[in-house]
Amino acid sequence: MRCPEDRDRPPPGEYKRRVVSAAPQALASSLVLLPRRIGRLGEELASLLSPPRCTGCDEPLGRAALFCDGCEVALAEHDPGICPACEQPAGPKGLCRGCAGRLSPLAAVRCAFEHEGPLSEALHAFKYGDRHELAAPLAALWIEALRAVGLPDFLGSGSLLAPVPLHPARLASRGFDQAALLAHRLAQALGAEARPRLASRVRDTRPQVGLGREARSANVAGAFRATAGLARGRDVVLVDDVLTTGATLRAAAEALVEGGARRVFGLTLARAAP
Ligand SMILES: [Zn+2]
Ligand SMILES: [Zn+2]
Known about the structure:
This protein is an alpha/beta fold and 274 residues long. The chain contains 9 helices and 7 strands, in the order αααβααβααββαββαβ. Helices cover 38% and strands 14% of the residues.
């Protein structure tokens, strides 16, 4: 297991791919993706020859699955009765009264798992290990966990699923947008609509890892802008992989409400202790 401080930090090699960050977004992502596509073909061939492995503990598996039985049992689901941003008892918004005020205008928030154990290993592999193919099984696991305690009302018909936007420079260095992949797979499985371009990240903020609550909030303030007209009058569900203090979701929600969204909700796969 990695120490918790490392979980959101890219491995050292990740920074080398930052070379094309100044190029226009589309060109940058195709330049970065081309060698990866070739690499992925090789990975797919290799996976045909070697048995699938557990994403939590790397044990070989007899079947294609995200986790072995032991890791599946070790998954910690987030209790929706507990505020994910501070661990006090949560009200109907999924947040405690203090966090509901602090994170306004988010109308409600729901997280499925605690960011620990096998799930944190799988998320790390997905984000930093080039394991894009994990988006579908992670989304399936996510929906299963939400259904077990009741799908939140805000996932009803008419809501748009919008990934928390990544800055183009970050997209170029990472090569893919993890929140967009998750939102796309969630929408597919739920029969909902994913809308990746409802907002954009207009400022490349430093990673939130290691920052306190106040600093996180200041770091992302004004970092997002809604795309003119797209969210007007709609209910929008912001999708992200991890919630820590909720500062990023709130900043994105503010931009969407300014852009005319009716209500904005937050949905994350995991919650990490601030
Ligand atoms: Zn395992
Ligand atoms: Zn709270």
